[in-house]
Amino acid sequence: MTDLKEKLILRRLDKVFCRLAPSPIHGVGIFAIKQIPLGINPFQDSFMAQEAIIVNKSKIKDQEILKMLHDYHPTSNDKLQIVSNFPNQPIWTDYINYSSSPNIELMTNGEWKTLQQIEIGEELVEDPKRLLNPDGSQKIFKVTAKQYPNLSYA
């Protein structure tokens, strides 16, 4: 490995703040592996390039696969969104559990932001009520290629 590649990898590792682990709240959650400062996006460099496709649920014959896909992205209609590398590289933020005392929030510009300093071992949680407008409708989130240059958009 060249010195430049090694430096780039080590620099990227400096920006890793979280890991997946069993959650006392529900299933698997995201936990801080080092102190995360207030007001930053701890997932900034964690997205991998992927493409999403929309498929009709009737095209998926294996019921266990269908259940797994629905568990990740529940829908009330007959369509599912599937990312090209699913389930081999799940998106970190699929594992954020809910709490009425959140420490992270999804902003309408598509960026995540910590609402407080998060300590080592603390689970990152969001309040689902913050995803709604005052009238109860879901907020629209806009993610741009500039924010996540490694993410491709279908």
List keywords for this structure.
154 residues, alpha+beta, 2 domains, two-stranded antiparallel sheet, 2 helices, 14% helix, 21% strand, globular, disordered C terminus
What secondary-structure arrangement, pairings included, does this model have?
Elements lengths: L2 H11 L4 E5 L5 E5 L19 E5 L6 H10 L6 E5 L13 E2 L5 E3 L5 E3 L8 E4 L28
What does this structure look like?
- The strands form three sheets. Strands 1-2-8-5 form a four-stranded mixed β-sheet, with no helix packed on it. Strands 3-4 form a two-stranded antiparallel ribbon.
- It starts with a helix and ends in a 28-residue tail after the last strand.
- It folds into two domains: 1-48 and 93-106 and 120-154, no CATH class; 51-88, no CATH class.
- A hairpin with a 5-residue loop joins strand 6 and strand 7.
- It is α+β, with helices and mostly antiparallel strands and 154 residues long.
- Helices cover 14% and strands 21% of the residues.
Q: TL;DR of this structure?
A:
This protein has 154 residues and is of the alpha+beta class.
- Rounded radius of gyration (Å): 17 Å
Strand order of the largest sheet: 1-2-8-5
As a percent range, the share of strand residues is 15-25%
Q: Can you count the helices?
A: 2
Order of helices and strands: HEEEHEEEEE
Biggest sheet features: 4 strands, mixed
Low-pLDDT ranges: 144-154
Alpha carbon gap, first and last residue: 33 Å
Q: How many individual domains? A: 2
Structural class: alpha+beta
> What is the helix fraction of residues, given as a range?
10-25%
What's the overall geometry?
Answer: globular
How many beta-strand runs? Answer: 8
Mean pLDDT over all positions:
75
